[in-house]
Write a structure and sequence with these properties.
With about 240 residues, this protein is of the alpha/beta class. Helices cover about 60% and strands about 15% of the residues. It has a five-stranded mixed sheet with strand order 2-1-3-4-5.
Length: about 240
């Protein structure tokens, strides 16, 4: 009887061990499936995230490309308009036999170059100065005290430049322009990027203008073109007023 009980007990133990083994096996397989499912979800999540990042990057790139293209189109349009205004102004000067001269700082001679792009400009264009430094302005007739009192970037200095070149060349119209196109000027603490001053003097008339231009995304050449465009428009309007 004892032997049978022992045998039965052993069988029960074996059965229990077998059941436990099966349960553990099932649990292990379930864990593996869950782990595979988890890894799949993580991989899918990472893939979706990468797609979103790539999509966002593509959108940003498209926006930057469109912004650059818009800037190029605007620059081209401004250049074309400036050319039309300049040519119209020079033709009016020629027709009316009105002489002109210029003293340029931040535009570095670009305005004078625009004048000479029109055939026959030699009949009215007396000459110009490119006075990039304070010393150069003083050498060509700008009072040193005017720069000291108002700062080189100011309407009084632009007016003094216009008067100085008009007197130097004996022209009827004198044009002066000064300002900052890009970074601040380390030699002049009053410089403000994009702040430009120009003056046009014709007989007793004075046309004094201040420009506040956005510098973001624009090269120095773009800035110069925009300044010249404004000056050409003012000259044209002055001659047709």
């Amino acid at each position: 009887m004892g032997t049978v009980l022992i045998a039965t007990g052993t069988g029960v133990a074996v059965f229990i061990n077998f059941v436990l083994y099966c349960c553990l096996r099932v649990a292990s397989e379930a864990d593996e499936k869950m782990e595979r499912a988890y890894m799949f979800l993580k991989t899918d999540e990472r893939t979706q995230h990468e797609k979103q990042e790539n999509g966002l990057a593509a959108t940003v790139a498209d926006c930057e490309t469109e912004a650059a293209a818009a800037t190029d189109r605007e620059t081209a349009a401004n250049t074309e308009t400036a050319t039309d205004d300049m040519e119209a102004a020079v033709r009016l000067l020629i027709e009316r036999n009105i002489s002109v001269s210029a003293m340029e700082s931040c535009t570095s001679g670009l305005f004078a170059s625009g004048i000479t792009d029109t055939e026959g400009a030699s009949a009215v264009f007396k000459g110009s100065f490119v006075t990039y430094s304070n010393e150069a302005k003083v050498m060509q007739g700008v009072p040193e005290e005017t720069i000291a009192v108002y700062g080189v970037y100011s309407l009084p200095v632009a007016e003094a430049m216009a008067e100085a070149c008009r007197e130097a060349y004996g022209a009827q119209i004198g044009i002066g322009v000064t300002g900052t196109t890009g970074n601040t000027d380390s030699n002049n603490s009053d410089s403000v990027p994009g702040e430009v001053y120009y003056a046009i003097l014709w007989n007793e008339q004075k046309y004094l203008h201040t420009l506040h231009l956005e510098t973001a995304g624009l090269s120095r050449q773009d800035m110069k073109r925009r300044i010249v465009a404004e000056m050409a428009l003012t000259l044209r309007q002055m001659l047709t007023a």
